[in-house]
Amino acid sequence: xxxxxxxxxxxKSFVNPSCQLIAVSKTKxxxxxxAAYAAGIRDFGENKVQEIQAKQPEMPTDTRWHMIGxxxxxxxKYIAPYVHLIHGVDSFKLLKEINKQGKKINRVIPVLxxxxxxxxxSKFGFDQTELEEMLNSEEFAQLTHVQIKGLMGxxxxxxxxxxIRKEFRGLKTLFEELKKRDLPPFVHxxxxxxxxxxxxxxxxxxxxxxxxxGSAIFGARNYSQGRxxxxxxx
Length: 234
Ligand SMILES: *Cc1c(COP(=O)(O)O)cnc(C)c1O
Prior knowledge:
Elements: H1 3-12, E1 20-24, H2 30-38, E2 43-46, H3 49-55, E3 64-67, H4 76-79, E4 85-89, H5 92-104, E5 109-115, H6 128-135, H7 138-141, E6 146-153, H8 161-179, E7 187-194, H9 200-205, E8 210-213, H10 215-218
Parallel strand pairs: 1-2, 1-8, 2-3, 3-4, 4-5, 5-6, 6-7
The structure holds pyridoxal-5'-phosphate.
InterPro entries: Ala_racemase_N, PLP-binding_barrel, PyrdxlP_homeostasis
Function: Pyridoxal 5'-phosphate (PLP)-binding protein, which is involved in PLP homeostasis.
Family: Belongs to the pyridoxal phosphate-binding protein YggS/PROSC family.
């Protein structure tokens, strides 16, 4: 697996060259992360707290760790001191916990709100009603140690590119709509995290600012050693 060559090929195929690339290194050994680092990558995406915890001390200190998967509230405290961006904030409960942990260590933690845009019921994320409820609540306005930097979404896993495009477009529309709203100062909507190995070009055409790419860089993942990837079984 030539990680450097894969990275070059991926970047060359970007529709929007200024879109940020997050290299999704979940399940991959530290040597693979180091190879990507040597090729210039600083942003790495992981979806398990335990795995970030294990890899973080092994990588140079300027590595930026992105938590891209579903995050359980009781695990926030482990990554709160160093996580660069939490992409998968999918409930108000989780956001409040991140705020609480940030407060404890006096750090404002950058997050994205994950919206449910796919047809599949199994994918995590806010629906529009839940989002509105949160945005309109008094408790929300009082958060002090989170910074909401944008939205994240995962499209349906399908060959139907029109379907994928429609879902990304819907997320972009919501993103633009929210930007115009009068929201608390800790909401700075600038990042739209959408697109993975199979759909990043469509995502970029639809306005993605950040793509999360794993298998196109590091090769297919092998989950045969007892690993499970709950609610994300492509
Ligand atoms: C695994 C994962 C990715 C990367 O998937 P690839 O298809 O390997 O590029 C992106 N986003 C999330 C949330 C993931 O869990």
